[in-house]
Amino acid sequence: MDKFLALSVLLLQFCFSSSLTIPAATNNILINHAISSSNYDHPRKHDLHRKIKTRRAKLTSFEGVTAEIENVEGTYLVNLVIGTPPVSFLASPTTVTDLIWTQCKPCKHCFNQSTPIYNRSKSSSFSKLPCSHELCKASYIHSCNSDCRYKQKYLGGSSEGVMGTETITFGSHSVPDIAFGCGNSNTFVVSHGSGVLGLGRGPQSLVSQLGIRRFSYCLPYYAESNGRLLLGSEVQHQQNSKTEIQSTPLVLNPSNSSFYYLTLHGITVGETKLQIPKGMFEVRKDGGGGLIINSGEMLTAMEQPAFGLLKDEFKSQLKLPFADKKSSLGYDACFSFEPKSNVEVPKLIYHFDRFADLVLPVENYVFTDSENGVMCLAILEGNEGVSTFGGIHQSNINMMFDLNKGELSFAPVHCKEL
Ligand SMILES: *[C@@H]1O[C@H](CO)[C@@H](O)[C@H](O)[C@H]1NC(C)=O
Ligand SMILES: *[C@@H]1O[C@H](CO)[C@@H](O)[C@H](O)[C@H]1NC(C)=O
Ligand SMILES: *[C@@H]1O[C@H](CO)[C@@H](O)[C@H](O)[C@H]1NC(C)=O
């Protein structure tokens, strides 16, 4: 190997006894859930924004909340509490949808959850959301007889039920009157959880409802439970001389206004900058395309032709054959190697706007199964019309969203120290 390449390579030392982890490929379904919701998210923006402002004013005394994030077999979950008396609400926190919902009795169709299912008749803090309320009308699919009924579609299924308001408790901090979906027909499954915590930019999201302009999260690795979600204007990066904080603009796409778009100028593998066509990750004039940041799924989904270029570049630098479909557990970029040997993995760098280069640690983009000699990139071939930047890439990086500055800043950190 030439010297140049050697420098650009990270040595991946496989530890044979330790937990190897290629998570099950159910992630494929979850990826879709992210995207398709946007297809149902066409609120009348101007109208909504005006009304939301008045709501915000009520919450000026709000200081901030914290919740732990755990990664349970590939699903990120925050451990919240809903209602009075309180019931556990294990919610998947996601930046690519807005609606907050939990499974709700009586169930027409509920998936298994490990904690008792919330029953609104048992909660003294539940109220129905009036049909005239802007957060009722913000659901792309809603109907109004006496109740505000919603349907939130994802490609992997849907959640359907009645919109209400509830007290949601984050640690010791209870927040009343959060609008949410009380879902009694849920074909979309949140594995190990009971619902979804929407953190998007649309009016129904927790971020919009609280009226906060800043939040941050740190996502844990597979099967770890030390992640953090922090919401509030006081949220800051840890300041110490060693942390390098970088920032890049958060772009708003008026056609899909729930998403946080990033401007990605390029990708480097090892020492090679990929020859990605100009504009590959830009939002097109028709509102499609672009790259959005996703805290709800582990994997990144990269549209073509970027995905193919990336995969081929890894193949040529690794000098390893592609793994066959069976051993690759459904992932799209996997390589075979001599079982129990070491592999040198090229660096992976994302070049975001304003010279924000995200140099990923190898565990943020590669899964390995050294017993069987298979390694896979944590990147799938996207085919939803938009690329998504997934959670594994963001592991152990504090991601801070500042909506006033229109900026995402990030800094490597150990989540458990936050
Ligand atoms: C929900 O709670 C009410 C009031 O306690 C109870 O009558 C009802 O049976 C419960 N529903 C279910 C499906 O458990
Ligand atoms: C749900 O839980 C029940 C009872 O524990 C079990 O019989 C059933 O197989 C589970 N269903 C699924 C889809 O896991
Ligand atoms: C974004 O908006 C455009 C136009 O409204 C639409 O064609 C596209 O499917 C939307 N969704 C995504 C994920 O880009």
UniProtKB/TrEMBL annotation:
It comes from the Eukaryota. GO terms for cellular component: extracellular region. CDD domains: pepsin_A_like_plant. GO terms for biological process: proteolysis. Residues 1-19 form the signal peptide. InterPro entries: Pepsin-like_plant, PEPTIDASE_A1, Peptidase_aspartic_dom_sf, Plant_Aspart_Prot_A1, TAXi_C, TAXi_N. Residues 76-411 form the Peptidase A1 domain. GO terms for molecular function: aspartic-type endopeptidase activity. Pfam families: TAXi_C, TAXi_N. Keywords: Aspartyl protease, Glycoprotein, Hydrolase, Protease, Signal. Belongs to the peptidase A1 family. This is Peptidase A1 domain-containing protein. It comes from Dioscorea zingiberensis. The lineage of its organism: Eukaryota, Viridiplantae, Streptophyta, Embryophyta, Tracheophyta.
